[in-house]
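Long-time lurker, finally posting.

We've been working with (rape) hypothetical protein (Brassica napus) and I want a structural starting point before designing mutants. I don't trust myself to interpret raw outputs, so I'm hoping someone here can both generate the structure tokens and explain anything notable. Sequence follows.
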Amino acid sequence: MMSGHKNVLKLVGCCVEFYKPVVVCEYAEKGPLKLEDKDGGPLPWTARLTIAKEIANAVAYLHSAFPRVIVNRDISPQNIFLDEYGTAKLSSFCLSISIPEGQSSVIDDKVVYGISTDPEYNGTGIVSEKFDVYSFGVTMLFLLGGELCLVWLSASIGQIGFPFPPAYAEDLIDQFRDVIDSSIWNGESELSGVQVETFFELAMRCIRFPGQDMRTIIDVAKELKGLEDLSKTSTDSKHQPVTELPKPLIKYNDVLGKGKGILYEN
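Top reply, 14 upvotes:
Generated this for you. Predicted structure of (rape) hypothetical protein:
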């Protein structure tokens, strides 16, 4: 079912000539997600934004295209591949679980480990769409700053617990900004700076910071599409002041108490 989506690594077949059956998937020329381009330089901000949007679309498809919501439970940077054109492909569905029709969650006793795992899951066994939203938020953080961001997140959860106490919000935000890749944080245009800030604040919502829930992955995908469209419609963003951008749709300051992240209309 999922192999027909353009942002899913297509299943080719299964090889049974090994000790255990091996799943065979299409070849992704550029391999697993990395934050460097072909010349070894940092992956451009526009490419990172597009990758996030494409993976969000794939997850939104899982959550909405079938009679039952399918929760992937294994969304992480290492399970994202890029084809020869740089198109993002989500892989690994072995931990996926469906939620019964008419229900918003399901109980499962499978233990799932990893930095991208929703911290609340292993304590409750409750699987809902929020699991994937959290995991996707972690992937967004990786796109902002690589492994250092994930180390920061893991250390913060270990030290102060999860959900993050609101009293620590300001300090944590300042610490996190220090580990964002400077090549995208200090972009060439005022527009890219606004996009990075908004992307950052959206990632914080996805990981329920500080203790607040994002809505759905469909909302996330729409907001990322809005950010990407803003880049495509801006012909001279390098010299265009922020005050001349389209009318703002949504502000995210209610979550962080500060910042300039804005989602714009097309």
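Before you design anything, note these points.
Residues 235-266 have pLDDT under 50 and may be disordered.
The first helix runs from residue 45 to 64.
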